[in-house]
Structures are given as structure tokens and as C-alpha cells.
Design goal:
Elements (H helix, E strand, L loop, with lengths): L10 H12 L43 H12 L37 H9 L1 E5 L7 E8 L4 E6 L6 E5 L3 H6 L7 H9 L4 E5 H7 L15 H14 L6 H10 L3
């Protein structure tokens, strides 16, 4: 698989990167789970989003230290807020056809492998490919950060694992993406920063909810989820609702 390439770069993205570089964050999400929380990824590969600002490292590890939670809140506080607009005119195809490999300016694009299979390779363990292919994943083990459970996945049961858009496309449409050009919408839909393979059932339950309406069942990962949501929103200059921003801050100790 080709090396990841740089993503969309704007003022918000540069500011976000600066926050991350000076925060002195620690990275591999060991321990720190509260009662009722799921465990960290069992193979130790998962990386906190504070150490993974472009989404090209595996997993979503908990944010656990006080220093990291402070950095997380500072990042979330950069978000601007506004009310959620109408869903009128939204269609999935407005963001390009599903899992296209041709979105410009995002990691993993134009490497000959569609976005879904790129994400399965990135996050899966014990990955096996279709005979004669180095792209099409037919089985793997996946640690789902949203539930804190391992999934032994096979392509015959494809919907058991779905690729979640952390910032849902419909949500983005209502928060400003309706006015974007096609290229920027395709970038959001195929950017590894905005994508995580997770339990299909859990992804379906999320729908197009923001953090005020839905959070991962695994409590240990909720601050990390809020950070990833904020990273995407800042990179693409998307506002969030005031309720979503408040909920995100609460997950990181505000």
C-alpha cells in the first residue's frame, strides 16, 4: 500500500497541529478505564488521537493523563458553534460514490485500493487478502474502540464491520458542507482522519448524531472520540452545535 499523503491543510489544521506539538502528549492509552468502561486495544497498537492528527495510525486509544486531557479540552475549545441547519438536499452521492480512491489531497488516496479496504488494512490485525490481491481484505481481527470488543471479521459477513464517519456526512451537510464544492466533500468522506472501522450495529445506532446525542458505549474512549470529532471539524472548518461542544468538553474532564 502506498505511503499516506498529506491531507487538506488550512489555517485551522495548522493551529490544531501546533496545539498537538506543544501539548507533550503521551501516547498508547494504557490503563485509566473507569467503571463500566471497555479495555484498551489488546495488541498495544492503538494510538491516542493527540498522537495521530492525520488519522493514519491504527486504533483509537484512550486519553488518560491530566496533561493530555488539558490538551484535548484546549483543542475542543477552538471549535466554533452554530445551530444545525436543514437536511434538505442531502444525499450520500453529494460526497462522491462510496469509498472512492480518487479523492484529492487526503491520506491513502490514489494507491489503487478503495478507501474501505485501506481502512480495514490500517486498523485490522491478522489481515488476509483475496487470492491474487494485495487490496481486498477477506478476513481480519478488529478491535472495535466503540464497544471495547474484538471482532473476528470475514467478508462473507461484511456488514458486521462498517466504516464510521466520525463527523457524519449528513451532520457536516447541515453544518456547512452543503455550500462546499464537490472536491472538499469527497475529501471529508474519504479522509482517514474521519474514518474508523467499528461494529456495524453500533455504527447504525449512531446514525448522523453529534456527540450530544450519541457517544461510544465504551466510556474509556469517549474523550478520544471527542478529540477526533474536533480534529475533523477543525481541519474542515466545520462548526458544531453548542450542545455538542459542551458534551465533548465534558468527556475530557471539563
Amino acid at each position: 500500500m502506498a505511503r499516506p499523503r498529506g491531507g487538506v491543510v488550512g489555517a485551522a489544521a495548522v493551529a490544531t497541529a501546533a496545539v498537538l506539538l506543544v501539548s507533550g502528549c503521551e501516547g498508547l492509552g494504557e490503563g485509566g478505564s473507569s467503571a463500566g468502561s471497555g479495555p484498551a486495544a489488546p495488541d498495544g497498537r492503538a494510538v491516542t488521537p493527540l498522537r495521530n492528527p492525520d488519522g493514519t495510525k491504527a486504533g483509537l486509544a484512550p486519553v488518560t493523563t491530566g496533561q493530555d486531557k488539558t490538551a484535548a479540552r484546549e483543542l475542543i475549545e477552538e471549535l466554533r458553534t452554530k445551530g444545525r441547519g436543514p437536511r434538505t438536499g442531502y444525499e450520500r452521492d453529494r460526497f462522491g460514490y462510496a469509498w472512492m480512491d480518487t479523492a484529492e489531497g487526503v491520506p491513502l488516496a490514489r494507491n489503487g485500493c478503495d478507501t474501505r479496504n485501506d481502512l480495514l488494512q490500517l486498523h485490522g490485525r491478522n489481515v488476509r487478502f483475496r487470492s491474487g490481491s494485495d487490496c481486498v481484505v477477506v478476513s481480519m481481527d478488529l478491535y472495535d474502540p466503540y464497544t471495547g470488543k474484538d471482532i473476528a471479521w470475514k467478508k462473507a459477513r461484511a456488514t458486521e464491520v462498517q466504516i464510521d464517519h466520525v463527523v457524519p456526512l449528513s451532520y457536516a451537510w447541515q453544518m456547512g458542507a452543503a455550500r462546499w464544492d464537490k472536491d472538499k466533500r469527497e475529501q471529508l468522506a474519504n479522509d482517514a482522519l474521519n474514518l474508523l472501522p467499528v461494529s456495524g450495529r453500533t455504527n447504525s445506532a449512531k446514525g448522523d448524531s453529534g456527540p450530544a446525542s450519541w457517544l461510544p458505549p465504551n466510556k474509556a474512549i469517549r474523550c478520544s472520540y471527542a478529540v477526533r470529532f474536533a480534529q475533523v471539524a477543525l481541519k474542515y472548518d466545520l462548526a458544531v452545535t453548542a450542545a455538542d461542544r459542551t458534551m465533548m468538553l465534558e468527556q475530557c474532564g471539563a
